[in-house]
Amino acid sequence: MARRDLLKTIGAASLVASAKSLWAGDSPRVAFSVRRLTLKHTWTIARNSSDYKDNVFVRIERDGAVGWGEAAPNVRYGESAEKTLAVLERTRPLLESADWFEYVDLRRRWETFTKDQTCAGAALDMAVLDWVGGKLGVPLWRLFGLDGSKAPITTFSIGIDTPNVVRQKVREAADFPVLKIKVGRDNDAEILAAVRDVTDCPLRVDANEGWRDKHLALDRILWLQDLGVELIEQPMPAAMLDETAWLRDRVDIPIIADEAVKDAADIPKLAQAYDGINIKLMKSGGIQEAMRMIHVARALDMKIMLGCMIASSVSITAAAHLSPLIDYADLDGNLLIADDPFTGVTVERGRLVLPDRPGLGVAERKR
């Protein structure tokens, strides 16, 4: 064999050996389970109330590394734990046969199953990326080339309730410098008065599509502007794009799209009516699409919020790894539950502190 050919053979063998050291080919273990997360307080928004959430967890393991993912189904999008679990089971053969390092192509393949249950796609996405980060020995924020110290302050959310309970919730959130207040029912004035009885901190308000008349929405927002409110999320139903554009021309505080946006394809049409978007992994289908949404929104000069459903530290931490890229964080879903089964991102005086452990950096609590 010629020397040049020998060197080529040695080089190719080295690459194969290097790849095999990361991907040894052990039989994968894939598990899906439903866990009930109990809330500290009854959670009420404009649409509904709940005392617990049944979320679906994904655990994958191969070659000594483990990846965790979480799906938080939302009835607003026709999701449920049962439907999500069924979709995930359909992806099992794909997961068990795939190279998890090829997560970009892998996401395209599982999206054929998860299109109508995007929270299932989010759980798969974070589990595979958690595994990749674990195998490479780096946290996701570092894998993405971000500065973890630039994670922002997160709001703490106050659900709709009686004035006395609202005051109690606000007192419990005294360490948070900014609060997010849920409105959209007939007692908006009572709720805001109760909040202002306890604190004068900046507020962000979320109506969850609760105001269905543009003139009512205008009156409410003009009133909120005088109460130290920084922004308003989804004041009107998602379908009322023209009415929201009309509203935006008449108010001074930013209007942020939430229910109106799921993925990157939704963003360009929203720029005429909204100042920014609220990205949630459960809506986008995972971290990869959320990253794409951030770049599209930036190209359109829109503000970016990272939000969440009520969930454990698995999905909250997954979203937090993208937080150095955004303007506003609302990543408190794990703080609203009484029995978080995981640890991950922490909060110090309202600021997110990203884990420095590989992958997501989450750990299951010992029972």
Give the termini separation: 61 Å
Main sheet: strands, sense, barrel = 8 strands, parallel
Mean of residue pLDDT values = 91
Shape: globular
Low-confidence stretches at least 5 residues in length (pLDDT < 50)? 3-22
Oligomer: single chain
Spell out the blueprint of helices and strands.
Blueprint: H1 3-22, E1 29-44, E2 49-62, E3 65-71, H2 81-97, H3 103-114, H4 118-136, H5 140-143, E4 156-158, H6 163-172, E5 179-182, H7 188-198, E6 203-206, H8 214-225, E7 229-233, H9 241-248, E8 255-257, H10 267-270, E9 276-279, H11 281-284, H12 287-299, E10 303-306, H13 313-320, E11 328-329, E12 342-343, E13 346-348, E14 351-353, E15 363-364
Parallel strand pairs: 4-5, 5-6, 6-7, 7-8, 8-9, 9-10, 10-11
Antiparallel strand pairs: 1-2, 2-3, 12-15, 13-14
Question: Would you mind describing this structure in some detail?
Answer:
Keywords: Isomerase, Magnesium, Metal-binding. Its cofactor is Mg(2+). Pfam families: MR_MLE_C, MR_MLE_N. The structure is a single chain. The protein has 367 residues and is of the alpha/beta class. It has 2 domains: 29-137, 2-Layer Sandwich (Enolase-like, domain 1), CATH 3.30.390.10; 142-364, Enolase-like C-terminal domain (TIM Barrel, Alpha-Beta Barrel). It is 39% helix and 21% strand. It contains 13 helices and 15 strands. It has helices at residues 3-22, 81-97, 103-114, 118-136, 140-143, 163-172, 188-198, 214-225, 241-248, 267-270, 281-284, 287-299, 313-320; strands at 29-44, 49-62, 65-71, 156-158, 179-182, 203-206, 229-233, 255-257, 276-279, 303-306, 328-329, 342-343, 346-348, 351-353, 363-364. The longest helix has 20 residues, at 3-22. It is globular. The relative contact order is 0.14.
